[in-house]
Write a structure and sequence with these properties.
The protein is α+β, with helices and mostly antiparallel strands. It has 13 helices and 24 strands.
């Protein structure tokens, strides 16, 4: 539970608790008394170590070394708003300029440590190569695409974006989307200060990802945020709608998930009263609701509502219905479109590796508890013919989403070109065997060089 106070309401007891300071530096009278020594307030902005930040969009998120203070500060409220979805997961502090990370690092007893500081703008200029297409500017390590035809590598991304523009009725972007592509998580941490497979800074038109797999996904967020609005619920929901529109299996998978989780409380997420939590349930519900709403009221109506920002007022203005009435309509739609699962079936996964670089076991992992929720995976048993197998029970009608690795994601199965494939998806239609051929492994590609 959060207690919100203005600065003059703080007491000595408050100073012993976890505190979040949020807002423009100019809005505080005594901010200097609270700040870590490395961060100082200047007349025209703020200073971190030897760096001074004076532009109105400059902002910083910084944890004190004892983790009792979190400062999310900037030279304007607009600048600070860039930090709302940015967390210091990689470094103790993150500095954003023009809505994107430009510096990050860690402190030594709350003091600046040059050895732990990363000027990512300078790093990118020094260490990344550039390639431009109609819609994108790609930045990547020089060794990433060695020996490959870059037009063939990057051209499909333009085609995917054209399909996105067609299905979601976007205008063509008036500027290129900047895509920073990395070999591994360590590179991604250093060059972007963001965790995970893919991340975007929509207002900066930037996307940071491992490989090319997240480019299409993050590009939808960038176009939605810049052409429509900043509702995370509908940004993620329209993303799910898009995948369901172009892939019937994705549509059935979503219907199935909602059928198995029918009591999801959607109102707080829908209206923005509760932050989108990026859980599997929230992704699925936002996609299902967006599908229902667009199919009934139209994509243009949804965009008008999101542009209005007040979702409840938007429903009333453009649909002549309250948010509760719309939710009741959705719940009726969910009930009418339920999927009933059939009897239990036995599914055998047979993995056929072209080669194995070591003696580590092959594992299967994927969505759901049976497939370890994308965890360490289920070890497969080696067979006399060189294949690896396991047999698992699933009810008929289940949609299975899965991948193969050798005990960790650093040893994930990849194509011969080193590209990480998308998730494999299969529907359980009876007792069956799913054959998976593995051409190569991520660590083998890395070991011999790209």
């Amino acid at each position: 539970r959060y207690i919100v106070k203005t600065e003059d309401e703080l007491t000595p007891e408050d100073m012993k608790k976890h505190l979040l300071f949020f807002g423009p530096v100019a809005s505080y009278a005594n901010l200097r008394a609270y700040l870590p020594p490395t961060l100082s307030v200047e007349k025209s902005g703020f200073r971190v170590g030897p760096y001074t930040f004076t532009d109105s969009l400059d902002a910083i998120s910084i944890f004190s070394s004892d983790s009792l203070r979190l400062f999310q500060l900037g030279n304007s409220l607009t600048g600070v708003q860039s930090l709302w979805s940015t967390h210091s997961e990689i470094s103790q502090y993150v500095i954003m300029q023009q809505h994107a990370t430009s510096h990050h690092g860690s402190l030594s007893n709350d003091r600046f440590d040059s050895s732990q500081h990363f000027d990512v703008v300078a790093l990118r200029k020094k260490e990344l190569t550039k390639y431009e297409t109609e819609f994108y500017t790609f930045f990547y390590p020089p060794d990433f695409f060695n020996g490959k035809n870059l037009r063939e590598v990057f051209g499909p991304e333009d085609k995917k974006l054209l399909q996105v523009i067609d299905v979601l009725e976007f205008e063509k972007p008036k500027r290129r989307i900047e895509c920073f592509v990395y070999n591994n998580l360590e590179q991604k941490y250093h060059f972007s200060a963001t965790a995970g497979y893919g991340n975007t800074f929509p207002l900066a038109w930037q996307n940071h990802s491992m490989g090319l797999g997240a480019i299409e996904h993050e590009s939808v967020h960038i176009l939605w945020n810049n052409q429509v609005g900043r509702s995370t619920f509908f940004s993620e929901g329209v993303m799910g709608y898009y995948y369901m529109k172009v892939d019937a299996t994705a549509r059935k998978k979503n219907r199935l998930f909602i059928s198995l989780h029918p009591n999801f409380n959607i109102k707080e997420l829908l209206t923005g009263a509760k932050n989108f939590d990026f859980s599997e349930e929230s992704y699925a519900a936002s996609a299902n609701f967006s599908w229902f709403f667009i199919e009934k009221y139209g994509l243009k109506t949804l965009k008008r509502i999101v542009r209005l920002e007040n979702i409840e007022a938007g429903f009333q203005q453009f649909c002549s219905k309250s948010v509760d009435e719309i939710i009741r309509e959705w719940k009726t739609y969910v009930e009418q479109n339920k999927i009933q699962l059939g009897p239990e079936r036995q599914v055998t996964f047979r993995v056929v590796p072209r080669f194995l670089p070591d003696t580590s076991a092959i594992c299967l992992t994927g969505e759901g508890e049976t497939l370890t929720n994308w965890g360490n995976g289920i070890p497969l048993e080696k067979q006399n013919d060189g294949s690896w197998t396991t047999t698992l029970p699933f009810r008929e009608g289940m949609i299975l989403t899965y991948k193969v690795h050798r005990g960790s994601w650093e040893k994930e199965a990849v194509g011969n070109d080193g590209v990480v494939p998308g998730n494999s998806i299969s529907e359980v239609r009876g007792n069956d065997t799913i054959r998976i051929v593995v051409d190569n492994w991520k660590d083998s590609i890395t070991a011999v060089g790209r």
